[in-house]
Amino acid sequence: MAEYNFSEIEKKWQQFWADNDTYKASVDPSKPKFYSLDMFPYPSGAGLHVGHPLGYIASDIVSRFKKLKGFNVLHPMGFDAFGLPAEQYAIQTGQHPAITTEENIKRYKEQLRNIGFSFDWDKEVRTSDPKFYKWTQWIFMQLFNSYYNNNTDKAESIESLVAEFEAKGNAAVNAVCDEDTPAFTAEEWKGFSEKEQQQILLKYRLSYLADTTVNWCPALGTVLSNDEVKDGFSERGGHPVVRKKMMQWMMRITAYAERLLTGLETIDWPEPLKEMQRNWIGKSMGAELDFKVEGHDIDITVFTTRIDTIFGVTYLALAPESELVKQLVTEDQKETVMAYAEKAANRSERERMTDVKTITGAFTGAYAIHPFSGEQVPIWVADYVLAGYGTGAVMAVPAGDQRDYDFAKHFDLPIVPIIEGANIEEAADPTKEGIMINSGFLNRLSPKEAILKGIEELEKQGIGKAKINYRMRDAIFTRQRYWGEPLPVYYQDGNPYLMDTDKLPLVLPEIDKYLPTEDGEPPLGRAKDWTTEKGDPIELSTMPGWAGSSWYFFRYMDAHNEDAFVSKEAQEYWENVDLYIGGSEHATGHLLYSRFWTKFLYDQGYVTVEEPFKKLINQGMIQGVSSLVYRLTLEYTGSSEGQKPEIYLSKGIIDKIKKSNLTNAEKEIIEKLISEGIASFNQNNGTDLTPKEISFDQITPIHVDINMVYNDELDIEAFKKWRAELKNAIVIPEADGKYLCGSEVEKMSKSKYNVVNPDDIIEKYGADTLRMYEMFLGPLEQFKPWNTNGIDGVFKFLRRFWNLFHDDKDNFFVSTEKATKEELKVLHKTIKKAQEDIEKYSFNTSVSEFMICVNELTSLKCNKAEILEQLVIVLSPYAPHIAEELWSKLGHVTSVTTAQFPAYDESYLVEDSHEYPVSVNGKMRAKMSFPTDMPREEIEKQVLASEIIQKWLEGKTPKKVIVVPKKIVNVVI
Fold this sequence. Notes:
six-stranded mixed β-sheet
């Protein structure tokens, strides 16, 4: 068998690709373009495990295929390099985050290169590079200098808005702005001070300052997004998170809510992910109306999608964070209400939305006046009401909403039936079916009719109006951390102003510690002279992690441009991403924000596309297969000084114990081995332990390092050297002396000792084997367990493929003889399958087809260049290193990436014969092959003439012979 030296081959071609810029892409209007992109990674210190490259391998296969099909392919890679982990490490060690990040990136790049990706490293970007974040800062400035014009349905210059104010005031302005924006005339605008004018403009700007409720993590010293908080604790570190009001920079993403919704219909994304974005945006058609508060000059504004249920309102509920709580609570209820509001406000919004079983609330002591009936309506505080949705107040209709119903039942509040015949004895009836009752002027109408009539009456009385509402809130755009993009903002008289663009990039300053100051300011408060040349203070917060990732895909198109974030020529050519692969966990974060920024840049004329990613695939997770050993705990008498022997039973023994079929003889042997082990332990450790009883009641599965396990068999010697306490472990194996481990499929994690390093796989089997095996595991989108036991099959396939080109003496030997029809059929079947599979992103089935192909060619003893040369091209997207080596051996002086993907010929795939199952009286007795164009009469004649069928006829004359072309033959006697 010819030697396949994968290690030497792979290093050789990786160096060739780097030296020759094989994958460098540039604008070339003579070719169609294809932009293939992976979600760029955060470079953690742990490096890659085998689950990380899954999506990269898939995109690489498509990229290489498209290049072979004549496309100009852009396939870049970079690093999302700002973030909490590097900063937390800096806090612990004092080492600058940039140093840690650089070391981690170096490690990632080494691992990525070893896998043989066709990345254009010349276009690498890093979000922490000032040359990159200069443009992140610049885009922020454009957002600050823009507002959203509802009349034109796009973002426009804030200067045009100022001109409108100066000419006519804001009476005719139809723009997205804060709810509390005051009305003013042109004369009033001109009379405002500079500070007043800037405060009003902040109510319109797409990036603006606002006092808002945030998730504050004291231990991390920063604001966290909802996605970074789980059950009241930070996802990173598990620190407590509280809800508090803080002045924050915001992004007015809500201005784009409708366009973000409608844009989903124009892109090829997984439907579940699109549905996640729809739900996050949360469009609701309804009405907004006011409830006057008894004894106060205050209105409580509520939004409802069911104005038809207005007469079923039995209480109002305010969000704990609502400013109205302090204003309305009566003295006798103040202590209770304020304590409840503080506690409830500190629960995360996610927790409050999902926890439907816990019912809490507090009565404010105040009452509202029903806008139609004039009756008193009690006002409560309830944590199921969110300040960020609607108006932060709910008109509660227990008869029609389950949470309102549960709340009313819990606090013994009235439940008024409003739909005739609805059963509300045990639960609310949220349907829109039936006839309205107990509903004043809405009585006897259907709910749909009542909604129209109710809105009409609201607008007639001037107490409400029809309104479209969105659940999505504006995005918080700052973190009180060091390792992030500085905001190019300074302050005068408390107002924010932008720096001049020639001051960009505003580079992170050096500081002594990466902690908040003693006064509680963000770490940038430690910087010396963090002011403008005139002495004005510069913003101390930095941008969030999603800032750079919201536009990085444009930078790859023109990574070294110093005059623009992307040139007009490059963007118009590459347009947007044709294939984007990454995780669905980014649905309501990165994937939403990048769509928002792209639409904004489109409005401003900087790009020609409204959507960043045409097609998106969410790759599944490669899960770890953990190995488990089974520890037996016994009770002892005697002196031990805290030392006790570790006893481990093999899985076969455990299985018998669980099934209660351990024989007495087996039990005696195990007990004897344990006793001998304890005696040895006593001798080695100077102890005097005797088990009270050897029972198998306390058995605990323990994770063990998978590198000590092969085909479920534990390396006992390695296990005993793993940790000090295992040195004298008593290991009870199977009868054959092998200790077998249990297994469990779960997420790869250091704590479970189940992380598989791709470096180890590459060293043992090669990068091409790793690439093909990851694809072979199953469909790209599905979760699947990593099982090293199956990788041998892929490795053996590559060796068989290699052997097709070599003789028994390891000499390269390829024949120039003309291929047979059978050999051509095998080839063209493979070409067709590979092309169709790549085009529908079904990579695992292609790997199977390659294996079948090589097996068939091996059986045919095919070593013909006419077949093998084309096969090298077809396999090259999956296994590029071996393909390059064989392509070179075939006499080519250029890379296989410059070849043309072969076209398959259907004529070779047409079957010229068919194997018929031949039955006698319905029972199959033989199989016979006949040409597909053979007439029925001839088939019948040859069937009856065959010796096998004659035997079953026993000399009888058939009544009839049924021939179904290309299916069956049945002889009836």
